[in-house]
Amino acid sequence: MGKRTIYFLFTDTGTVLSRTIHYYTRTSYNHVSISYDHTLKDVYSFGRKNPNNPFIGGFVKEDIHSDFFKKSECAIYRYQLSEAEYQSVIRNIEEIEARKHDYKYNFIGLFGILLQIEIKRKNAFFCSQFVATVLKDSERFEFGKPPSLTTPADLRMYEGMQLIYQGILEDYQPEHAIEERKLVIGDQISPKQSFTFFLSNTVKRFVMK
Fold first, then answer.
1. Entry's InterPro entries (predicted)?
2. Which of 81-85, 165-169, 170-174, 205-209 has the lowest mean pLDDT?
3. Rounded CA gap, 26 and 60, in Å?
């Protein structure tokens, strides 16, 4: 059976919430989104509905070219799923999107993460909780914890995640995903090749600036 690819966008937006989470977790890229394709045309998550208002959040379809995101530091990963798993992810996202007005951002759940206490709230997610939830039907993703305690770092460090780009989001080009795919050996990327790819693109971005 053929394999399909999904993409994970991890960002550091520099907001007060992002800095606060970083202070307590000591990890980078504390916002995660999910996409079906390497162009990141359609990117889904739970976050601010209005970039200028941090207190109103919920299901969002993010624009990576917006002023809010384009200057963000980011890391983009790819992960391979079976066709059935891929369709399940799409279906789970579409079901939430169809009822997006019924959902809200799970601010309280963030305290559960800090205290390692599962806080269940109906129709409320924070970003990594949403991503873990839409992945719930995939047998490949077993975090050993409920979605409400899953962090962006849990997703980013998950076995099989393949880094295709790291840097400023507005500098990302879809070709990064295509070039990195050429380095895949079976289902794994050669660490030496992946490092060379990352280093060459870092130098390229430095020269262009």
1. Papain-like_cys_pep_sf (IPR038765)
2. 205-209
3. 26
Give residue for tokens 């030496």.
Answer: 192
Q: What is the rounded distance in angstroms from the CA atom of residue 123 to the CA atom of residue 105? A: 9
- Would the pLDDT of 204 be above 70? no
**What does the pLDDT look like over 74-112, one tens digit per residue?**
999 999 999 999 999 999 999 999 999 999 999 999 889
Is 14 in contact with 72 (CB distance < 8 Å)? Answer: yes
- CA angle 151/156/160 to nearest 5° reads 130
Q: Residues near 112 by Cβ (< 8 Å), separated by ≥ 6?
A: 118, 119, 148, 149
| Cβ-contact 136, 142 below 8 angstroms | no
Cα 151 to Cα 116: distance, rounded to the nearest angstrom? 11
- Asked if residue 92 lies in contact with residue 59, where contact means CB atoms within 8 angstroms, the answer is no
Asked whether the beta carbons of 36 and 81 are under 8 A apart, the reply is: no
Whole-angstrom distance, CA of residue 6 vs CA of residue 25 = 26
Cβ contact 169:69 at 8 Å? yes
Q: Which residues pair with 74 in a beta bridge?
A: 11, 167
Map out the domains of the chain with their CATH numbers.
3-186 (3.90.1720)
- Whose CA is closest to 54, among 68, 75, 40, 34? 68
> Which three-class secondary structure state does DSSP give residue 184?
strand
- Mean pLDDT over 13-35 rounds to 73
